[in-house]
Amino acid sequence: MPVQKALDSYKCADRSQDEDDGPEDAFQSIRIPLGHPPVLFGLPGSEELMREILSHLKWRFGECAFQMFDNGEIGPKILHTVANHDVFVVIARNDAMSELNFSLMRLLLTVDALRGESPHRLTVVMPCLEYARQDRKLVAGEAIAPKLLLRCIRTAGATRVLTVDLHNQAEAAFSPTGMVLDELSSDVYLADFIKRNVTNFDEDHTVVCATNGMADILRVGFIMADRFRQQGDVKIISDSELKAVSTVIVIDDMFDTCGNLVEVCSALHLLLPKADLYGVAPHGYFSGDAGEKVKGLVQDPWSLLYRSGTDCNLQWLAVTNSVDQTAALQRLAAAGLESRIKVIEISKLLAGAIARLHLGAPVNVSKFKSLGPKDIDPATWPKRRQTSADIDPARCCGRTCFY
Asked: Which of 1, 154, 300, 326 has the fewest CB atoms within 10 Å, i.e. the most exposed one?
């Protein structure tokens, strides 16, 4: 009853004000928000990924501006009302626009500025967790960088971080008190890309040099390359007959300087000299002299430029857009490898996870993990009644329930 009386008083005030004032000065009725509207903010360098995510969600895009002072400091300013909103901040590494540590500092300042505007919840979407490889102390005096990064993000004001394919599964326990770290898997997207782009893909003549999980998804044989860093040797372990193998897919967690890739591909080429090699990873940096290393692994029958004696029949490398590949593609194009690098789109995976987090649904359930790029995702499906023409029976269970 007190709430109803308050609403009636607002209505009476609204009517009396409208009678006295003109149409331009009319008193606007008070808006009482229901729920927590979602809004997405994208930091500079993440615009392309943001556009792809919003194409699946159809949500509002938050506006923010950044001021650079003469002394090098950054000043963020939020231009969008976020009070009582469910806020998501997307950051993707983009070496073509800004240096990594500069981008992380800009993220922390933006999260702190958003927290000051009283959002309902603040989630950072970082598809590639930076500093992930510094996940343990190899010698005394070293820092555990990803654990510190997550603490900084929590101190800035975020209560959740969403990422894709951690370097080490144990890093899921690095999240500080009051923060949740959700990890998504891109295995289904990688497997779908492999089936559609590997020339003459055949389950009987293909093996995967990776984990058993990817081999099970592709229904192919399994090879493990055990690399001994101290001796520099690579030991190949297989669970199937290799005589009939014509295709080997090398899967790693990331391609950085590609030193490991060179050693593994060289060992596989010695074992299977006639097999075609393909490289796939969730994250790609291609830093340092990665271009020259990849160039030595590629066999191009139309040019003698690449035939340096280390050719390993490497056909192409594929990475997801968890890291913006603009700068990497420019460096690799300079080495003549523009046709050898492919980018796998995972914005639908991120959009589905963001929608579930907003609705309070879990993201680490088997039904969501099994969805591929061509499957219907109920969380991002258009807000209209489905018809029989909209539903592919092979990819949908036929129910309209949300999971």
From this structure: 1
